[in-house]
Amino acid sequence: MSEKIYACLLKLFPSRFRREYESEALLLFRDRYREERGPMRKLRLCLDLLVDLVAGLPKAYQNSLAAGSSLAPEGHAAPPFQVLESEPLRPGAVLLGTLLSFSAIVCFAWAMGRDIGERLAPVNEPKSPVEMVMQRLNQPMQPEPSAQPATQPEAAAPANSNASAATPSSNGQVQPPAQQDLLQYQQQTSLGRPQQGAMVRASGESGSMSAASRPESAVNASQPGGRVLPASRASSNGVVIATGMRTGESASGVPTAARDAAAAMSQSEPASSISTAQPNVENATHAMVRLMRTHQIVMFGETHGDKQEYEWLCALVKDPAFASQVDDIVVEFGNSLYQKTVDRYIAGGDVPQEQIEKAWRNVIGAVGPVSPVYGWFYKAVREANRQRPSGHQIRLLLGDPYGDWEKIHDAEDLGPFVAHRDAWYAQVVKHEVLAPHHRALLIMGAGHFLRRNGPGLVERAIRDAGVQPYLVVFGTNAVGGYDVLDLRFNKWPTPAIVSLQGNWVGELPANPVLTGGVVAPNAQKMEDVADAMLYVGSRDTLMQVNVPRSDLLDTAYGKEVERRLQIQIGRTMEFTQPLEEPQYHRPLQQVSSNGIHLTPPNPPKSFRDPLPPRPPSQ
Questions:
Q1: Residue 511 has pLDDT above 80, yes or no
Q2: Which residues contact 246 (CB under 8 A, 6 or more apart)?
């Protein structure tokens, strides 16, 4: 075996191996080639080299990949692009890759154009599950029966659920029956039991049935044993009335399906346009890790102070798979005046508790005492970084303006900071995340991120930089007035994230879902305002965490909160709230579709002034 042949064989090894060992390998070959004399020894040398080549080639690639994957800490994610070879690809490799890719595309297009399901096996022979699925997919769609009025007489409703029950389609989803009784179909596909004489107004107003009066157990009509509500009709004023039966029973005494929560969300559109497609309910942590791998920016619209929400967020940042994907987390609940203090704390430095508390307690946008859940989150990020002392570290970026409450004495001093909160947050994202090409999770109150009239200011700034963000918002199972809850959510494992495109969750009215039924529905749907929704539990199980009264009564912080309230809303508050209370309370008055705003109705002109010069970060 000549030196040229051996040099060609070395090209089979990875470039990293060749750069470090090729010259030494050739030198060793020359020495042995001179020492081995005679045909038998030369043959033995060739055999030894071939054996070494076969045995060492896989190990060389394995070691090379292991060295490259160290750039992705703990191996919880796919190796990033930094592990690719620095030298350019050879022209032959580019040409070969192009030809193979083009051939694969042509073969795939040809295969997809063939009626494979009909040709896999003879008609009379048994088919595999894959063959059966392909055959069903190739069948033409059946036309729907002609629509009939939904207000047909009560006697025409079938007594047996099998007459009008929904049937599964080829893709496993439940398709609606004829449109002659769409409201009845919605009752079949929801959970719960209707109460005697209960009424659900189609306009979205709450009926007479309270949440406490609903039974805990429910029967799903789409499962065996479920029954269709036999006696339901729609009156001329749009009220769906359940008549002629006892509580939770049909005319024959058999338990019925639950009340029609879907009818309560039809106030903004005809019932025939409501989607029945089932959403993909995904574990929230797994979904967020997947989103961070596929998107440079993921935006999360939070609900302030929610206990279950921030328990999940704290667990999320500690997850190694998530921590390895994210460079920065930009939060609304952090005054950027204290960025240096937070950097030391997050890195594991010794920072006094009263110093780090200033970061989230002194935010400009907070009205009243600030919930301790934000302190939980700071601590969780710190612990996540301490678990990876030599690995990838997450930086916590503070997105609230740099207002110093010690220098704010009236609304004129506060105005410029309040007016530019979104603009400052967008500026932090632009300079600290987008400019260095970092991957980040953005956390801010959902009202700042929602696409009410198109993307908000922060999202527009991100899109202007050429980045397409993904928006997840916190939601509940309230779909109408305060008493109207959709019990289909109860079947979901929590916490979960669901996409809002092309399914019945995206068709829900946005306002009730986002506010726990406190704000009345309007024409906007969930799919209009966000890409996905985080669901951590039923509306009535959600709890808000408050500051302990001992931290407010006769303390310096409590007196400072009272002073700030006088500046912000012109009045103070009594610190009588419990440590935990329900996240949503029944509204005491009718509120607009935009909710109640605590900012002064006529802000001073200085609210439109530019931000004052930024002081040094603490």
A1: yes
A2: 196, 253
Query: CA torsion sign, 36 to 38 to 39 to 44?
Result: negative
User: Residue written as tokens 């919605």?
Assistant: 186
For 74, 83, 243, 325, the CA distances from 71, given in Å and listed in that order, are 9, 7, 67, 11
DSSP string, 300-331: EEE-TTBHHHHHHHHHHHH-HHHHTT-SEEEE
Q: Determine the angle formed by the axes of helices 411-419 and 556-569, rounding to 10 degrees.
A: 80
Distance CA 3, CA 25 (A): 10
Residue 111 neighbours by CB distance under 10 Å: 9
Report the alpha-carbon distance of residue 279 to residue 300 in Å, rounded: 19
Q: 473: which 2 tokens?
A: 């918002």
List the beta bridge partners of residue 174.
168
| Extended beta strands in 434-562, E state | 440-445, 470-474, 496-499, 532-535, 543-545
State the virtual CA torsion across 105, 107, 109, 112 in degrees, nearest 10. -140
Query: CA 220 → CA 292, 406, 552, distances in Å?
Result: 36, 59, 48
What residue type is assigned to position 612 of the chain?
A: P
What is the maximum span of the chain, computed from C-alpha positions, in angstroms? Answer: 107
Q: Which alpha helices (DSSP H) does 394-521 contain, by range?
A: 411-419, 421-429, 446-449, 457-464, 510-515
User: Which tokens sit at 514?
Assistant: 């986002």
Q: Please write the tens of the pLDDT for every residue from 380-437.
A: 999 999 988 777 899 999 999 999 999 999 999 998 999 899 999 999 999 999 999 9
Distance from C-alpha of 374 to C-alpha of 386, rounded to nearest angstrom: 19
10 Å Cβ neighbour count for 539? 24
State how far the Cα of 448 lies from the Cα of 455, in Å rounded to an integer. 10
Q: Which of 3, 556, 480 is nearest to 201 (CA)?
A: 480
CATH number for the domain formed by residue range(s) 281-541: 3.40.50
CB 422 within 8 A of CB 458: yes
Q: What's the whole-number mean pLDDT along residues 45-63?
A: 78
- List the domain boundaries for the chain: 3-64, 154-273, 281-541, 549-574+582-608
